[in-house]
Design a protein that fits this description.
48% helix; single chain
């Protein structure tokens, strides 16, 4: 169970009789088997209505109407500007969402695809779109609910040290195996290095509204054509290079492609950074170039300081800590060669 913060996040929705009643009344969607499309955050249910294929999204209880309306407005704005986001399907009375118990429900068109952004070629095609998204969102204003999210795959530079120490303390409280104990110490060491490295850089970085989760399974392709940018549930205001850093860690961790040394990874990531920059209206600044490797190194720390520290279920927290361990090791390797990364990613 991945609830967090003492029940504030809520759990992923399940299919219920009440949900089918809401869908029948609001959207004339009949009760059916449906297919859970996956996704760890929300219930995403593929259903049919006559010849139409639709996706029913049921949010966690922590998502407010104000936040959902901001997300919907952003998706619509991007779609009208040419970024492929799925079209919202209003209810019969024109409503853009409904309630099922304490959860908000929305319906959108299903976009066929044959796979996520899980290859180097697809990532190279996806990153210019991320740059375009950032350009389009640079001047967008949303409500406070749209600008912030409490539980996300992100940790702000100012919370790195306190959050990581809290997560490491929780790991040690389990009387862990030696490998887990070493990982907790490595996470704290990484946090100290990142805080020192970002000092004087993070404060001056461009902040704006960003997607928040431009990850492999939220960007879908048909062949080599990007057809769908999904899941804006982690949308928030933060440094735009944090969004880029999250996407780059997808390939930075790829050892199957032979990326086992810093020169290999730098050479592979350089054209991806340039591809992202090609979609921007405002180019990356020198400060952003210098800070990007540190932002990449910071990424695994949200796993410790942002999740292990706050997950309610002990077994879920243990599993998350173990899953994060390899990324902590890779980030420490990056930091030992940070000068080459800062020079090489230009």
């Amino acid at each position: 169970m991945d609830d967090a913060g003492g029940g504030r996040r809520g759990t992923r929705a399940t299919i219920s009789a009440e949900l089918w009643e809401v869908l029948a009344a609001g959207w004339a969607i009949p009760r059916q088997r449906g297919r859970d499309l996956g996704g760890s955050l929300n219930l995403n249910l593929l259903v049919s209505r006559g010849d139409e294929q639709l996706v029913v999204r049921v949010h966690r209880p922590s998502v407010s109407p104000a936040r959902l309306e901001d997300i919907q407005a952003v998706r619509q704005r991007l779609h009208h500007a040419g970024v492929p986001c799925s079209a919202l399907v209003p209810a019969r009375d024109g409503a853009r969402w409904a309630r099922s118990g304490d959860r908000l429900v929305e319906v959108e068109r299903f976009i066929p695809h044959d796979g996520p952004m899980n290859t180097r070629h697809r990532l190279a095609r996806g990153l210019p779109v991320l740059g375009c998204i950032h350009s389009l969102l640079a001047e967008v204003e949303v409500s406070p609910a749209g600008r912030a999210i409490e539980f996300a795959n992100h940790i702000e530079p100012g919370r790195v040290l306190s959050g990581t120490r809290a997560g490491a303390q929780r790991i040690r409280s389990w009387h862990p195996a030696p490998l887990d104990l070493r990982m907790a110490s490595e996470a704290e060491r990484l946090a100290e290095l990142v805080v020192a490295g970002e000092a004087g850089l993070a404060e001056g970085l461009r902040r704006q509204l960003v997607h928040g989760d431009f990850w492999d399974d939220n960007v879908f392709f048909q062949g080599e054509t990007l057809v769908f940018v999904a899941d804006f549930a982690f949308m928030a205001e933060r440094a735009r290079i944090d969004d880029l850093a999250l996407a780059l860690t997808l390939y930075c961790a790829d050892t199957e492609a032979g990326l086992t040394t810093s020169p290999d990874r730098i050479a592979a990531l350089r054209p991806l950074v340039h591809g992202y920059a090609s979609g921007l209206g405002n180019p990356l600044t020198d400060a952003e170039h210098q800070a990007l490797p540190w932002a990449i190194a910071r990424q695994p720390l949200w796993g410790i300081g942002g999740w292990v520290a706050v997950l309610d279920d002990q077994d879920t927290a243990r599993a998350h800590a173990r899953a994060t361990s390899p990324a902590i090791g890779r980030a420490l390797q990056l930091v030992t060669d940070i000068g080459a990364w800062q020079a090489g990613l230009y």
